Amino acid sequence: MEKILESKAFSLVKKSGKLIEWFEVGVLSFGMFALASLLIVNVIARTFFKSIYFVPEISEFLVIAITFAGVSYAVRKARHIRMGAIFDAMNPKIQKVMIIIICAVSAFVMFLMALYAYQYVEVIMNTNQRTPALRLPYWIFLVMVPIGFFSAGLQYIRTIIKNIKEPDVWLSPEQQGEYEVEELQNLADKNKELADELLFNEEHAIEGQDKE
């Protein structure tokens, strides 16, 4: 029975992680595209006609959304700034204990910030503040702040679970080692594929010359 409950809980955590990832990627992709498009259009409009009055407000909203969706995404992919000199010098057992403690403290801070951000958004809602240009409720522009902090907290919890379940040390729920090492390995693999392709083409060229 305990194994079934544990399996269901793990499956629920995994599914929620996927949903959050889709949400983050969607917000980041759409936000970056929309922000770039708006700024380009506004520059053209300002040069030949006049500035579009609502672009600064929409841009502000998009920057907030990208920033706080990016907080959670950075935790998921272990792309946040970390001071790893002392941590990397430790043996794996101590590293695992340290990463669990670090993630627990970070999760607490993220959930606390999410609570404060939610309370702030609630105050903005109750005071009925609106944006100057579009006259939209200002809380809409800030709703991504508590969501981003809460999602980041969930990623730290997932990292703790990952390190408890797995024998290796995981920096995040999806990232085990440093990105630099993986990037170098990927670059080496790509170079090997390119070298194999060039060698294959050269062999075919030599065969063609021999036939002629």
UniProtKB/TrEMBL annotation:
Compartments it resides in: Cell inner membrane
Domain Tripartite ATP-independent periplasmic transporters DctQ component: 37-165
Domain of life: Bacteria
MF GO annotations: transmembrane transporter activity
Gene Ontology cellular component annotations, sorted alphabetically: plasma membrane
Pfam families attached to this UniProt entry: DctQ
Protein topology in the membrane: Multi-pass membrane protein
InterPro entries attached to this UniProt entry: DctQ (IPR055348), TRAP_DctQ (IPR007387)
Keywords: Cell inner membrane, Cell membrane, Membrane, Transmembrane, Transmembrane helix, Transport
GO biological process: C4-dicarboxylate transport
TM spans (from-to): 21-45, 51-76, 97-118, 138-157
PANTHER family: 2,3-DIKETO-L-GULONATE TRAP TRANSPORTER SMALL PERMEASE PROTEIN YIAM (PTHR35011:SF2)
Family according to the record: Belongs to the TRAP transporter small permease family.
Name under which the protein is recorded: Tripartite ATP-independent periplasmic transporter, DctQ component
